Amino acid sequence: MNQSKEKQQKQESGRTHLELKHLTLKPQEVETEITKELINAGIPVISDVAQLPGVMRFDTPHLSNHHKAESFMVVQLPLIVQNEMRDLLERKFPQYKEDGNGVVFFSGHMNADNIFFKKIEEVKELDHLPDVLITNDVNSLYHRFDIINENNFDTFQYVANPAFSGTGLVKPGMVMRYLAVDALVFVVDRTKYEQSAFPREWYELLHPALEKKVVFCGKTDFFCQTIYVHYVRDFGLNALKQLNRNTLETMHPVDMINTLQAGNKCNAKIYVMPYSYARMFEHYIDYQVIWPEDGAIVLPVQMLVKKGAYERNKEIIHLLTSAEAGKVFALNGLIPINRNTDCSFCKGKLNWLGWDFLKSTDLVELKRDIQTYLS
Q: Which helix (H) or strand (E) holds 121?
């Protein structure tokens, strides 16, 4: 058998066995005319329909005529919890298991998120959004109070988990119904602090002695901007200059884990990462997980439900806000909002940006400024 036929047979056999739900995006830096066309069509939602290895399909329910799936809910979650939440929904609602039958999961991966939220900024009509939209982080929805308001979305009133007391995150009559939050904390290399104290508050990461010693979440062209918005709120834009000098690298938390498990091969003193990942190092001899005394920065998971959509989707909404879903979040290190879910692992205060700040700040412009300072 010649090599080309052998290669073709391998590709054909891969079609039926490839599980795309565990992939997140086409290989980095690889672009095809098909993916360009689909990305430009609207908000991309990654499909699980099996295809040739290395080829990702983007569906755009409700946002273009390219794909006609009758999907009423789009779910974008932190990658660490996505598969378990998908499994929970499929167990409870098997009728939605197949792609295009109601629920579409969008990848919680930085590169894909960047595309997803840029498209959110461009949405012009309410009809361009699904009936139920679940997203994470302080994302582009917080730029769109012109659309994201009580005229267009249902409001929620509920009693939150005591862990959120005093944060101001949950307020009566809000259109954002929070499900859980991840929390940014420090992981420090103990061997580099034998003669000095560990940092305990966010301002300490601005110390000149930490030049090229701190690793943050992100990629070369995409930053986890929520943390930088906090620095601007608390210390001003000029603080970003020193923070930029102190940044050794930006990387995805999965890459941070690999780097730390390999003996801190990039030689950083501090890694700033979500607690859902940092908790893996709580029993390591060489590393210390530190919950900042001024509060772990909140990365929320929020749900929006269009006006009039609650009644026809209430069963699935009840599941997503239940203690059962809260347990899935908690087991993966996210702090659930559901008051009947244990979150004793929450080690201290939570640091929320604040609604007054969010509503009085042009986040689009601020994030452009942040990008400039960090470039």
A: helix 110-122
